[in-house]
Design brief:
CATH architecture of the largest domain in chain A: 3-Layer(aba) Sandwich
Structural class of chain A: alpha/beta
Largest sheet of chain A: 7 strands, mixed
Oligomer: homodimer
Number of domains of chain A: 2
Distance between the termini of chain A: 47 Å
CATH superfamily of the largest domain in chain A: Vaccinia Virus protein VP39
InterPro entries (chains A, B): PABS, PABS_CS, SAM-dependent_MTases_sf, Spermi_synthase, Spermidine_synt_N, Spermidine_synt_N_sf
Number of strands of chain A: 12
Keywords (chains A, B): Polyamine biosynthesis, Transferase
Order of helices and strands of chain A: HHEEEEEHEHEHHEHEHEHEEHH
GO cellular component, one term (chains A, B): cytosol
Number of helices of chain A: 11
Protein name (chains A, B): BnaA07g09800D protein
GO molecular function, one term (chains A, B): spermidine synthase activity
Helix content of chain A: 25-40%
Chain lengths: ~300, ~300
């Protein structure tokens, strides 16, 4: 299926398009987008909408792009904000450079998810990298990003990138053993299409595909809201990865209460002219509030 | 005026109380509280309301307390969340221990604002402290906190505390020169009653009241949203304080996009069994994203 053929811009004169507006636009402040999810019950974050630029339904999820009043263009999957032009640097730079600056001269990198291309843009800053595989399940995300977020999708233009549209779980199972220096899992939440990316068998596949001393970094939810999920992931990873397992955090204003990442194996190195990431904030990202340290350290074997 | 006499619990059977609900409850998701402000245009954060526990109007501001679905009890001043039971530890611990752990043996501390008592609770953990003056402009905030947030207002019970209900700007002007080891400014936003606490004359008064080598820490808004305000404050403070001026941040989920603090003079020391603060996160709080470092360093003289 070529998802590009499904791309439709809602025309303002089209009554049907207006009537078909998803619940996230109508159940809340009129003219605003509100993000609500069972992942963060009892709270919502809302952005004022200037114009809906795209609405589509892929084989996997609802895809929306809108122009916000104060955060630039916004990409929404299944009602959840994935990136805004204003703050995407915080997420993309941190999830990429935390792992890649933790090992010397990464050469072969695998990105699971990340269909907007932002992680690719950041991986491409590393001159040691020779080959980047990306496995994204939803081609519509790639197409929409190329159309509406050229400064993010620029990552796809790097000649080292090999884009595969498919299931990341299956891709990893078939990957050659010990073939990657780094795996970056840029997934959505553990409900919906990304669910398996938070489960033990997936991490076992990652461990198999990594070379000894390789590093994995994955989106690992918020320490304010999802300590139970984080506890399970850390526990699984301590079983599977024989090096260190750490939880790190960053500040992404439009994500619900900070998302975090964790990482296996690290050192320290700075890189390039970036907006957000630097070597100091690399180290700072691993300094956790005491309530989180207590839970995460309790999983140390 | 004794604000306690104004305390009214809205009775559910009282139609007038329902009709008098402030705009933040009615203009948004029915049954939810939404925080909107010209300080963060185009975005809103909403919490599901279980029950409104208190609504009052003091001489200075609207005061609301509600039971939220997932963040415990919430204190709201002029439509802006000041604290929730779930995450107040992050704010109170950081704004207090960042400055007090930066100087050896603080003895005399002044808190401007902070009428909920949480900063007092944290200051009281420091055994070297002999005397704590607090100047809060709004007695209703103190009374409401004592009634609904006993674990926060516990700070008022410390015998070293001298509570003054009055204007912090005037209080500081009359303070003896060089009399405080530390001043903590726990204010609301620079619109409304706290406006003057962000202006140069106020910081000049703070500098006068501090002993040489003393430290000030103040709420200094979000580096994602208010870089212009932060730039002004840093610039003013570099003029006034002859030691170091730093900007630090922390994560408070229910504050719009992280608030930050800055601080004058620092070292490093850990303290007590806390939920959030530790010596590592003390240092990490001063590691800023590159875009913020660029602006703040440009003010270095």
């Amino acid at each position: 299926m070529d998802a590009v053929t499904d791309l439709k811009r809602p025309r303002e004169e089209d009554d049907n398009a207006a009537a078909a507006k998803p619940a996230c636009f109508s159940s809340v402040i009129p003219g605003w987008f509100s993000e609500m999810s069972p992942m963060w019950p009892g709270e919502a974050h809302s952005l004022k909408v200037e114009k809906v630029l795209f609405q589509g339904k892929s084989d996997y999820q609802d895809v929306i792009v809108f122009q916000s009043a104060t955060y630039g263009k916004v990409l929404v999957l299944d009602g959840v904000i994935q990136l805004t032009e204003r703050d995407e640097c915080a997420y993309q730079e941190m999830i990429t450079h935390l792992p890649l600056c933790s090992i010397p001269n990464p050469k072969k990198v695998l990105v699971i998810g990340g269909g907007d291309g932002g992680v690719l843009r950041e991986v491409a800053r590393h001159p040691s990298v020779e080959h980047i595989d990306m496995c994204e399940i939803d081609k519509m995300v790639v197409d929409v990003s190329k159309q509406f977020f050229p400064n993010v999708a620029i990552g796809f233009e790097d000649p080292r990138v090999n884009l595969v549209i498919g299931d990341g779980v299956a891709f990893l199972k078939n990957a050659a053993q010990g073939s990657y220096d780094a795996v970056i899992v840029d997934s959505s939440d553990p409900i919906g299409p990304a669910k398996e990316l938070f489960e033990k068998p997936f991490f076992q596949s990652v461990a198999r595909a990594l070379r000894p001393g390789g590093v994995v970094c994955t989106q690992a939810e918020s320490l304010w809201l999802h300590m139970d999920i984080i506890e399970d992931i850390v526990s699984n990873c301590r079983d599977i990865f024989k090096g260190s397992v750490n939880y790190a955090w960053t500040s992404v204003p439009t994500y619900p209460r900070h998302w975090g990442y964790w990482i296996y194996a690290l050192s320290s190195k700075s890189n390039g002219p970036l907006k957000f990431y630097n070597s100091e904030i690399h180290s700072a990202a691993f300094c956790l509030p005491s309530f989180a340290t207590k839970v995460i350290e309790s999983k140390a074997t």
